[in-house]
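Recap from last week: sequence in, structure out.
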Amino acid sequence: MPQQHMPRLTPAPLRTSAKAAFLVALTGLAYLPALRNGFIWDDDAWLMHNRTLDGVTGLYRLWFDLLALQQYYPLTGTAFWIQYQLWGFHPFGYHAVNVALHALNVVLFWFVLRKLGLRGAWFAAAVFAVHPVLVESVAWITEIKNLLSTAFFLGSVLTYLNFENLETRDLPRRDGWFVLSLLLFICALLSKSVTCSLPVVLAILIWWKRERIRPADFRPLLPFFLVGLPMGLLTAWLEVHHVGATGASFNQEFYQRCIVAGRAIVFYLFKLIWPNDLTFIYPRWQVTSLWLLLVPAFVALCLLTLWFLRKRIGKGPLAAAAFFIVTLGPILGFFNGYAFQFSFVADHWQYLSSLGVITLASAFPNVLSGVSRHVRSAVLGFVLVALALLTTRQSFIYNDQDTLWGDTLVKNPKCWMAHNNLGVDLTERGVLRGAEEHFRAAVRFNTRYYEAENNLGEILLARNQVEEAARHIDRSIQINPTFAASHWNKALVLARQAKSDEAYEIVDQGLQQRPIYLAGVNAFAWLLATSPDERVRKPSGAEELARRCCEATGYANPRFLDTLAAAYASQNQFDRAAETASQAIDHAGRLGQATLAREITSRLELYKAGRGYFSFRR
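Predicted structure tokens:
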């Protein structure tokens, strides 16, 4: 008899490892372009201008100073601190870590769905891996806080499911898993406190998986609520009192906040279903019409419908919808967020909440169960490839500041913040005429935009249009009398107008403020060091102010060092000027500021030749 060969069965652990590896590879391939991206908006605040990255003292401040960062996210700050020690300000390492964290979240998401018994869990995880809405969180270095907090969030859910089997009460609870779940939840909160919704999510899962609910089922969640609620409230308080989410843009009636919440829920759901025209900053909605209350009413009606259909279609769809809305809760507009002044929605705000809707994708393979295996594989493969290609294309948008703001203005031409930020970027590169056009557009689209008024004044001052510059700087002060940059620019205007007494009165007031606005001090020092007007130029005063800026930043800020070098040169101390300029070039290179490094290099050549640099335009 011929020998019969029995089919080999792949061991379950090996199949699991192979599927997990495929998810990681799929994620890495989709995000290959992101690995070549640089730094964009807000990355400088978390990295280049973040003094907590320096040494053990900075690490101490991350954990024990609530105001050390924009928000109290010490684990996120620690992640940046570790990376800075490893690769400084080279963007590749930061992007690689973001992609790796997203891949980790994909695998954890798959494990959670498997633990919950969903048959199409792997496909849902694959959709999460390559969905283009999530690119903003992965390709933007700053949003490591999304990725890190979600990893701890999913880890906490997974360990809680190990602590208590939701399918049956017959198995004993394992307390070790409970402690680990709570610790992971605390880590999630310390990475980004939007994860404070986790105990509610666990309650939703318990309700979904158990036929009959008892109060004792929810009792273990009490410590999660006791930890999560204070952290969420702390973040809301810091957003208003530290970040600055206050003012006319945030004065809304309760019905308007309900409209924002309803529209945001519908918006986010639509973007997950049809991810078209994804934009870094979406237009800010007008929410003054009462008829727009129909939108939150529609959302409530949909939830009510799912409730009444739960016995026919199961509790899963309602649980997914509840997860989606609950995790969106902190950013639906009921609490002030700084970014709400220019948009009520952002793609990165739904990174965590998208898991609820994407979970429903696990049913898609089952819908195709009636077709042949090859057809089903082809359809599922086509969906994943299409999403992956969209993700790859979207990743290019986050390559640099110019690309990001240019794409934003194509899709949202009236985005005043994009105009202002693009103007700032052009100013850094010396393209003053282009910067002026964007600042003028910014103040045209937002007549209360005091920062753009001030920036426009700076550009006009650099182009020797002193009188018009004065008008815009005065307008900035009128809109916001506490904005320090405008007052320092007012001092520059007065100095240019040979009104020295009035200029120095503003300077004295500025030097007494805490914290001192060092950029303004440096700008005034530059004027004193390089002005061609003998009535204005005061080299010794420039040296004193520039040295003060350098001391405050540990002689690590290239612009401040550049000003100090110019002050030395204006006193014919060319050797000291050349040495200081060389230090400035080194620091500019370390920070990736190539344009500034080239500018200082040109001045260094003058110093080496024994020549000063006297021109107002930097």
